[in-house]
Amino acid sequence: MREEVVEATVRALRKAETSLPDWVMKQIEAAAERETNPVARLHLQFMLENARLAEAEGLPLCQDTGLLIFRVEQGRDLRLDFDLGEALAEGVRRATRDIPLRPNAVEPSTRRNSGDNTGPGIPDIIRETVEGDGLRLTVFPKGAGSENMSLVGMLNPADDPIDFIVRTVAERAANACPPLFLGIGLGGTFDLAARLAKRALFSLPGTSETELMLLKRINALGIGPMGLGGETTALGVRIESAFCHTASLPVALNFQCWAHRSATEVIR
Fold it and tell me: What's the pTM value of the predicted model, to 2 decimals?
């Protein structure tokens, strides 16, 4: 089964790096149709053309092929006789060579590049146990342009987290290749809030009253595609929350650029 996992990893990476999910394409298409700013509309059309050409040619749709994050849903009845993390890493190494992917993983102090997008802590693997005896692998390539704008704020309990989110987006969105997809972690601890924000990106788009209200406020900022103005600053917002200490209010924002890439493979 190890080889199946390796091959599924390569397939998922190839799909994620060279095409966008249908729902993401539809979000961009809808934004292009309703956008009244001609420059903004043109940029949205460029994004659609870029994605279509990448898929047709089988080439990465962005030069930043990202650090690789995997969501692994493993059936509780499945017993593995191999190291799943190493199998995923082997798939990443093959994909880096064969697709190809830009080597992005560096040691933080020396900046030495591993050359194959693997290393300590990379790929980042988020594991969940579910019912059944199968394995579901979802890959999320995460580019640095949007990731660099992400942050965790430790607010006072009396602060308004929505106002904090809108202010932060106003300050940072233009440098994150908008229109954005925004994952928000509300509550927990410093590190849990960040993980909630990352998980929120997996479950976009949000449809709650609060999420839709926040999306409306963000789009009213007028930052627009690529930060050049327009009505489309964000395409989706999702909030994941957890209980926090009575004396704290962590809020994490994980920015994602317009190229919200992901792909899933299921092994039964």
Answer: 0.93
